[in-house]
Amino acid sequence: MRISAKLACCLFFALPASAHWMVAAERPTMKVTRDPRPDILAHPLYDSYTEYRRRYNRPRFVSGWVASKIAPSSQEAMVWRENYAAGRYDRKHMPPMFKRYYAPKPWEVLLTGPRADFAEPPQALPPSAAPEPIEAADQTPGASRTGQ
User: Fold this and answer.
1) Which residue blocks in 36-145 are alpha helix, DSSP H?
2) What percentage of the chain's residues is helix, strand, coil (to nearest 5)?
3) Which residues have a Cβ under 8 Å from the Cβ of 89 and sit 6 or more positions away?
4) What whole-number distance in Å separates Cα of residue 32 and Cα of residue 117?
5) How far apart are CA 88 and CA 57, in angstroms?
6) How many other C-beta atoms are found inside a 10 Å radius of the C-beta of residue 139?
7) Secondary structure (3-state) at 10
8) pTM, to two decimals
9) Once rounded to an integer, what is the mean pLDDT over residues 65-90?
């Protein structure tokens, strides 16, 4: 009886480790792959969708309004206020607006030049003020550090 119990216990633990038929089935995909996390949706389904913000270069009306109430100094709130004042939310599918700046760059307008160098160059000390070298106590020729 004990032998059959030991044999059953060994088979119980050894069988799952060697059984290839117990591998979980792969999730259904449109492509045949062995990837443990394959793409279930085809790329044309979700890549063809373009976000409103990216398409029209402005936040949606409701999210911009909420941002202007919660954080009026945020970038989204300021852009929403600018587009709202320009009437870009009055009708559907108003074209996107991209700002263009034609002003020259600040470094092209301000003729400041390189930074001024106010540091004085180091001057050489006169020979009388030069510090004298520190001499070692034992400078006999042939003497080594180990004392031999």
Assistant:
1) 43-47, 52-56, 61-70, 75-85, 106-109
2) 35, 0, 65
3) 61, 83
4) 68
5) 11
6) 7
7) helix
8) 0.41
9) 94
